[in-house]
Structures are given as C-alpha cells and as structure tokens.
Amino acid sequence: MTWEYDPAPESRAIANLKPTYRPFVDGEFVDGTGEPLKSVNPATEEVLAEVGTAGPTDVDKAVKAARRAYDKVWGRMPGSERAKYIFRIARMIAERARELAVLETLDNGKPIKESRDTDVPTASAHFFYHAGWADKLEYAGYGPDPRPLGVAGQVIPWNFPLLMAAWKIAPALACGNTVVLKPAETTPLTALVLAEIIQQAELPPGVVNIVPGAGDVGAELVNHPGVAKVAFTGSTEVGKLIQGSLAGTGKKLTLELGGKAANIVFDDAPLDQAVEGIVNGIFFNQGHVCCAGSRLLVQESIADELLDRLHERVATLRVGDPMDKNTDVGAINSRDQLSKIRELVTSGEQEGAQRWTSPCPLPEKGFFFAPTVFANVTQSMRIAREEIFGPVLSVLTFRTPDEALAKANNTPYGLSAGVWTEKGSRILWMADRLRAGVVWANTFNRFDPAAPFGGYQESGFGREGGRTGLEAYLDV
Ligand code: NAP
Ligand code: MG
Q1: How many domains does the chain have?
Q2: How far apart are CA 283 and CA 44, in angstroms?
Q3: How far away, in angstroms, is 124 Cα from ligand 2 center?
Q4: Same domain membership, residue 432 and residue 292
Q5: pTM greater than 0.90
Q6: What Gene3D superfamilies does the annotation carry (predicted)?
Q7: Which tens digits make up the pLDDT trace of 189-211?
Q8: Distances in whole angstroms, Cα of residue 197 to Cα of each of 92, 97, 220
C-alpha cells in the first residue's frame, strides 16, 4: 500500500509577481523599444506578466553602457573591491531565495522542490564561489596579472533561467568584465529580479545589463561589434549559427549546447541506488537538462530486473502542479517543447521501440507529459540519437565494457555520462575513454560551482565553473 499525499501548495503571493517587467540598461529599468512579450505559466497556460523587450537600439545602448562601465570603473577596480559586490549579490539571492524559487516555478513550470533546493541555492553558490576568485586571479594559473576581455554578451536558455544567469554573470564579473545578458523568451522573470538585486547591491550602472526578447535580440547582441566575448547556452543549431557569424571577428566564444548522455549500468551495480540515479538523471527538471541521462545502457544480464524496478519506481513519481511541494515532475516549459517531445515519442513507436508510460494522472490544463521509458531501442532510432529534452528515457543493452563504451560514444554530442558499478578500476577505465565533459560515477546530475562543466563535439566547447571556467573570461 502506498500513502496518498494531501496537496501541499506553496503560496503564489511569495513571488511578488508584478504586472510588468522591463529591460535593465545602464543601471535603470527602461521601456524597451521591442514588442512586449507575455510570459506564461506553462502549468496553467495563464499569462503571468507582460515583459518589455529590447530593440536593436536598446541592445546598442546596453553594450555601450557596459563598455563605459568597463573602461571607467569595473575593469580598473581592484579584485578585492569587485568581490564585495559579488558577495553582496550572493547574499541577496539567498535572502530572497523563497521569492525567487516561487517565481521560477511559476514562469518555468519546474517543481517548487527543485527551484527551492537546486536552482536558487546553486545560483547563490555560484556568486559566492566566484566572489572568492576576484582577488586571487593571479593564482589561477593564467599568468601574474590576467586581464579581463571587456564586454561579455551572454545568451541563455529556459531550462534553468536564474541558475544559467548566475553561471554566466558571476565568472564574468569576478574576472573584471561587464555584461549584457539575454534571458530566454519564455522565462525572463527571474533574470529581471536578479537585475533588481544587482541594482540594490549598488553595482555601478552598466556593469550588468539584462535585455529580454526573442532570438533576434540574442543575434543582435552576439553580433554587436562592442562585444568582446560571447557565452551561449542553448541548442546546437543556434550554437552553430553563432559560431559561423562570429568567425573572423576575434571575439572569444564559449558554447554550451545539447547532449544525449549515456547512463551506463553494469551488472554489479547496486540496483536500487542505480534506479534512483536513473530517475534523477532523466526526470529531474522534466528532462529539460542538457546533460540529462537520456540513454540508459544496461548490461544485458540485469536488463529485465532493472527495467521492472525502474517501471515500479517511475510509476510512483507525482506529476502535476509544480507549486505543490510533493510534485516530482512539473510542466513542460512550452507548447512548442511539448510538441517536439510528442513528435519524437511517436517516431520511437513507429521505429519499433517498446513504449512504457507511467499511468499517472495528468492535469487537464497546462503542458504535461507523463514519464516514459522506451525499451528495445537500437542505436539508429531517432530516440537514441536526437535530444528529446523531455521526460523520456531510451534503454539500450550491452554485454561487455567495450560494447558499452562504443555505444556510449556513438553520438555527435559529448556533454556528460554516468557509470554505475561496484568496481573502482572499471569507473576509471570508463571515465578515461568516455568522450564526455563530465562523467559521474554512481551518481548523476551533480553540480558544484567549483567543478568545470562543458562539452565535446556538438555539445560545444569551453568550460564553465571552477578554475578552468575563469579562462573564458580572461585574456589568455
Ligand atoms: P535555443 O533555441 O538555442 O535558445 C537558447 C537561447 O538563444 C535563447 O535565449 C534564444 O532566444 C536564443 N536565440 C535563439 N536564436 C538565436 C540566434 N540566432 N542568435 C542568438 N541567440 C538566439 O535553445 P532552447 O530551445 O531555448 O534550449 C534548449 C536547448 O539548449 C537544448 O538543446 C539544450 O540541450 C540546450 N542547453 C544546453 C545547455 C548546456 O549547458 N550545454 C544548458 C541548457 C540547455 P529565445 O528564448 O527567444 O528562443
Ligand atoms: Mg514562462
């Protein structure tokens, strides 16, 4: 018998939702010259707020303000002084953690327990960590006096809106650069509250600018001649476009793109623990995770048993209202993303994979997709090759470590991988040979500001986080 949970809804009032949000340029909130957009709660399809967007003139003003702030103040300020501002941002995020978590959940659709326990604390941790570097850059291994680059133009996706903003802004500021950041069209709200925090932390005007809008605003920003460094997180498709348009400009570029990670379970792995790791690997954040463990590779001898345990566990996941503290899987971020998931799942059925979908009830309104596991997947199927970016797992089997490795590396991507085994030597053997930026052993989806993160091949290049991540923001 399983326990039924009563609803435990978080209060929406905590989000301090405002009817309108505006771009943040040169230390002020301004009326953008772009067409305003409406940000929607994907769990209810209601409009949350109207958001002013930046037109080309606003992007130009933001880049020029960032350049002035760089030349006059931020680029010359001693690291120990910059650190004080960055620490202040970290503390203010922590102070407003609950408000930010509720707002993130409303705007993005992710479960409140994730925005509360992962997104917001990790965002604050990124500012804390990088504040510590600001006055120690000469010890980072990039020479005795590493210099910043100038204005960083940064474009982020919708899956971790506040956390991605923190990943981008914190190292840029720590190294002495100024920033113009474009949040994703469907999730601009928490970045604009971060702008409010930055204003209240009294950062000099122009050091950070936030320009909401759609892809055209992103393109305007990355192509602006005043930008010295571009940092992009998003799809491989747009990453390629940006790399093409930046070729020959001398701008420094880092790309964090898609993934199709292998999560590999050997026959000696602790199975219950592995099941938890598989669930966390693919159903965390509705599978809207670039490093999601979306391809499960199971050793053949334990495949049936593992699948049985997995189905049993996945059937207990509570799918629904993201504001409910008991919810495990929330809403798909947008109608477009939901259709993309449905299309790929249909292709999996048509190509002959065996579909299992959780019998969980789904809300009538909003964008939801029940957790789904495909067995009998072969490497040529689209669901084994393409990023689904949703709560859908593809299961393949293998017999030997060599076969596991060959299958794991048979992808154009290379962002992350997981290995489950009792054997330490096998973990090291696999980690050496897996072409992935991050390899987790007996765990999955662990993030820490001190650990570098980034991809191989079509997952992009450059690293974010840790000492290694500083390089992208220094003239080295
Ligand atoms: P996307 O379409 O590439 O969008 C990412 C960002 O780029 C958004 O802010 C988007 O604006 C903007 N953009 C779109 N076209 C642009 C252009 N031509 N020039 C400059 N900017 C442009 O990706 P998405 O669908 O939002 O996000 C999902 C993808 O991101 C997945 O493939 C996922 O794997 C990847 N991702 C990777 C990482 C990583 O760290 N490697 C992390 C998270 C997500 P709009 O919001 O208006 O579209
Ligand atoms: Mg939204």
Answers
A1: 2
A2: 20
A3: 22
A4: yes
A5: yes
A6: Aldehyde Dehydrogenase, Chain A, domain 1, Aldehyde Dehydrogenase, Chain A, domain 2
A7: 999 999 999 999 999 999 999 99
A8: 7, 12, 26
